[in-house]
Each structure stands twice: as C-alpha cells, then as structure tokens.
Amino acid sequence: xxxxxxxxxxxxxxxxxxxxxxxxxxxxxxxxxxxxxxxxxxxxxxxxxxxxxxxxxxxxxxxxxxxxxxxxxxxxxxxxxxxxxxxxxxxxxxxxxxxxxxxxxxxxxxxxxxxxxxxxxxxxxxxxxxxxxxxxxxxxxxxxxxxxxxxxxxxxxxxxxxxxxxxxxxxxxxxxxxxxxxxxxxxxxxxxxxxxxxxxxxxxxxxxxxxxxxxxxxxxxxxxxxxxxxxxxxxxxxxxxxxxxxxxxxxxxxxxxxxxxxxxxxxxxxxxxxx
Length: 275
Description:
- Helix 5 runs antiparallel to helix 6 (160-182) and helix 7 runs antiparallel to helix 8.
- It is rod-shaped and about 160 Å long.
- It has helices spanning 13-34, 38-56, 63-66, 72-117, 126-154, 160-182, 191-220, 229-262.
- It is built from eight helices and no strands.
- The chain has two domains: 4-58, no CATH class; 126-266.
- With 275 residues, the protein is mostly helical.
C-alpha cells in the first residue's frame, strides 16, 4: 500500500504471515515450557462457547453441569445402585403381598365351601328337646327290652348243635341291639340319657365278644363242647357279664325315675321290662 510522499505504510502479506507463525510458535514453545495443555484449553473454550450459545437460545443446563466430574460420578453410581435396590425391594414386597393375598383368598374360599357343605345346625327349643328326649328314651327302652325278652324265650340247649345255635342267637341279639341304639338320633337329648345309652352299648358289645369266644371254643375244641381250662375261663367271663347286666338294669331304672321327675309334663318315662 502506498501513501502520500511515496512512503509505504502497513505490513505486507509475507510480513503478516511471518508474524503470525512467530506468534504461534512462541505460544507453543511457551506452553511446552510451562507445561500447559493447549488441547484441554481449546476444549474448555469450546464448551464455554457452547454454554453461552445455549443460554442465549433460552435452554437450561450447560455442558459443565451435564458432564459429571470425577467426584460426582461415584455419587451418581451409588444413587443409581440405591434406586435399583429400592425398586427390587418394592417388586419383591409386591410379589409377596400378592402371594399372601392369593393364599388368604384361597383359604377363605375353602372355608366358605366347607360351611356350605356342612349342614347348618338349628338350635332346638326347650319343647323340642323334651320331645327328642322322650322319643330317644322310648326307643332305647324298646331295644333293651327286646334283647332281654328274646334271650329268655330261647331257654337252655341240651345237645352240641343246639348249643351252637343258642350261642349264635345270643351273639346276634347283642349285635342287633348295638346297631339299633347307635342309629338313634341323639340331637337335643338329655345328656343323662345319652350317657346311659353308651353304657348299654358297651355292655352289649361285651356280649358280642363273649359269645363269639364261646363259638370259637365250641368249634375248635376236641370234644365239641365247652369244657377244659379255656371253657372255665369263658364261664368266669360269662358270670362277670351277668353281674354287669344287673348294674345296667339298676342304672336304667334310675334314669327312668330321673326323667319322670324332670319332665313332669311328658308323663312317666317307662323303663324296659327285664322280667
């Protein structure tokens, strides 16, 4: 470029380039000497320029805030790990709650089915309990009387084959009495009557065993009759059974007297006729 008086002003292109190269070389040599990382400085400057651009555009957050530092990275990992563990715990708790709820629902359904399957027991009135007691006692006395009268109508057998029939008949009568009494409806019946019924059942059950034993002795014995040591043992058991019968009869008469005085409106409770 020329100016007045022919004096050149400014720098030529070669001079400008030479100065620029000298400047860059001085910066590089100075950074190497001072230990400055020019690449890091350039990157930081670029991030700062991007941050300024984002703030000018109205966007929140900067590159510095988005990029975690070395100190913030472990904290973020711990936060993520804690969140994962918390989520897993919540899932486990939810599954356990669902399993518990399903089990409770199944138990409730099963209990409802059992209630529907079992009949509902209606409480009887006082009058109904009195009538139930009277009906039960009448049937019980009839069973006791039937076995007693049938036993005495047979008499004693003389020969072996007649003895076998007699023993079989006695056993069957005892078993029939047990079956009939066990089939009676005891709902609403006075407990004293049902307790006596159990006593009668026990005595007849003992009679079934007694005469079954006599049949075994009769069929297995060499003489075909009730003789020998085993027969003597059976005779002792039969004597004990007859003594127990007397106790059952006395109890039967006592319960009949109790019922007559307790349920006066129903009239006398007749006992079985043993003779």
